[in-house]
Amino acid sequence: MSKLDARLASQMAGIALGHVTREYPNKLDHLLTSDADLASPRTLHPIFFGSFDWHSCVHGWWTLLTLGRLFPRIDEAQAITRLADSSFTAEKVAAELAYLDRPSSRGFERPYGWAWLLYLHLEAARHAAGWGDALEPLARAFAERLSAYLEVMTYPIRVGTHFNTAFALILSLEWADAFDPALAAAIRGRALHWFGADRDCQAWEPGGDEFLSPALIEALCMARAHPALFPAWFGEFLPRVASREPATLFAAAVVSDRSDGKIAHLDGLNLSRAWCWRGIAPLLPPAGRAAAGSAADTHLAAALPHIAGDYMGEHWLASFALLALLVSDAS
Question: Which of 37, 69, 262, 295 would disulfide-bridge 32, Cβ 3.0–4.6 Å?
Fold first, then answer.
């Protein structure tokens, strides 16, 4: 079983340090309403301008802060601290907030980037350097958006990409439990409303550009939101896990071209499936727990060697590897 140790932490920190301030290439989520809206990524987003896109930069920073806290003696730890000190300032946070105030920014990074920003703030608040205080106004702004969105969102989005509702709820719930009890209650209520009656999932996946398993991310969402209800719910949602069915959930996805940004998503699928399997395994009966653990190992082994090498995966995959590895260390 793969384990997060200082060597791997150093490797992943080096990867993230190499891209959170790399401005180009850059794929902006930016709606132009006139020529005046034309600006560089660094101008639009003085903190999160790197890592190919805004959301990847946010979770690249989560990766850095998490690794710096868990492994304060790795060679990269001081560089992480210096860069965070110069990045998480009141002035730069105000500029990121100003971007959200644009009338055309209502749907900016919804919901994936919102959830990752909350998760980053949760991690930043664990540090004594003041980064959490600096980022809190931005986190509160996204939390308000999420709360309002949950009130008007009739149906969940179940795709295996950035728009997936369950993934956003998982990360946001952990933040909300610490900072916003009303939002936490709303998340739990919506998760049960949307997913509580789901039965006999066929798991027709993966899609060709998915980095999340629609089936397993929903299961992890229910495990986090309603752990007491989860065993009975899961027994009906995926009733044949002990027999390793549906088979699609137990076989690692094949990645045919890691230079293709969409196909490279499938390395992320393998990593996020490992995270999900590890997250739900302790709540399953022994046979299901064994099947889940084996599947997690299979998926992690397929993707962990590929978190670096081509920038289409390198700018984000370490974060998903870390999600999976942290569950391993906590279990």
Answer: 37
